[in-house]
Amino acid sequence: MITLDTALFKDELFKVFEINGLSSLIDDERAEKLALLTEIMLEENQKYNLTAIKETDKIILLHYADSLMTASLFGENSSVIDVGCGAGFPSVPLAICRPDLKITAMDSTAKKVNYVDMVSNELSLNITAVCARAEDAAKVGSKDSFREKFDIATARAVADLSVLSELCLPLVKVGGSFAVMKGKNGKEELTHAKKGISILGGRIEAEKEFLLTDTKGETYERVSAVIRKEKETSALYPRSYSQITKKPL
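RE: above sequence
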């Protein structure tokens, strides 16, 4: 079993959270859970690929802090779906640092869903892990449909926003929102996706550019946005994944 120097890990964690304005989300108990999560993830990563990032300082910044930069957009006790959750980002850090949230972590890869489920049980988190494709889970009349069931949808490093909007917005209730997290090309993606977002019943309500910063002063450009769901999504959407990717709205 991989064992961290917990004191050093927590020292780095608290510093990174302070630099990036996240101090209100962290305390000693949550830091302990993030340390244990890191040990589990690095151990499981030896069996199959969960993350290419293996240095603890980078994990803290690029997985944990990055996952939480939009946490203030999530209303108290919101139901949240993480589309294409992968190794559990942002869903697992959100569940640790915002235990009020009811989170569904969805991915089409069974190994990753099983991993998130295992982590959730180990850390006693409020996460339901589901193996499904978003375009199937949101179809009108599909079995156990998640269509327009959630207050908030979010996704990280899944696809271009013109594709991602059609996967996420059909899952959001009218009045809810799609919380977008993107890298330095985020503003360009928002511009290109604006028409499709409108067709799907959404509107770009707010956007923000910021820098994710480590303890050495290295920065990473980020863009966040809130897409508000103003009306029901037409039953025509989502289309099949091949249609979505070949001809984005």
